[in-house]
From TrEMBL:
This is Large-conductance mechanosensitive channel. Belongs to the MscL family. The chain crosses the membrane at residues 12-39, 70-93. It is found in: Cell membrane. Homopentamer. GO terms for molecular function: mechanosensitive monoatomic ion channel activity. NCBIfam families: mscL. It comes from the Bacteria.
Amino acid sequence: MFKGFKEFIMRGNVIDLAVAVVIGAAFTAIINALVTGIINPALGALFNAEDLNGAWIVTIPTLAGGKAEILFGALVAAAIQFILVAAAVYFALVLPVNKLKERAEARRKAGASEEDVPPDELQLLTEIRDLLASPATGRHTTE
């Protein structure tokens, strides 16, 4: 049972996912502060409301005779927040990593020495497999 769990945790994509969640949470906190503290009040002022959550409220009657409010401004605020988080992650993480990969691949194709070009994922995995299978580690891949 623990061996299967260890194999699951040690997969590269699980570690990548954990890193992505942590970084995403950090970006979300920053974007939440930006939207809540600056964008919502500024857009709310345009619509004569305290903030965007208080703008575009539609009141409808309920079957019980009361009233319900539909908060369209809150939906717009959430959409703005999502777009800002996605843009921050893309421009701060995805774009730079893609550029680094493109540069490494261009150097590899140009015939740069192995020391000048960082290894790609397949090369790293092959090295790890070979190290695990070597007698010096005391482990074999046929466990």
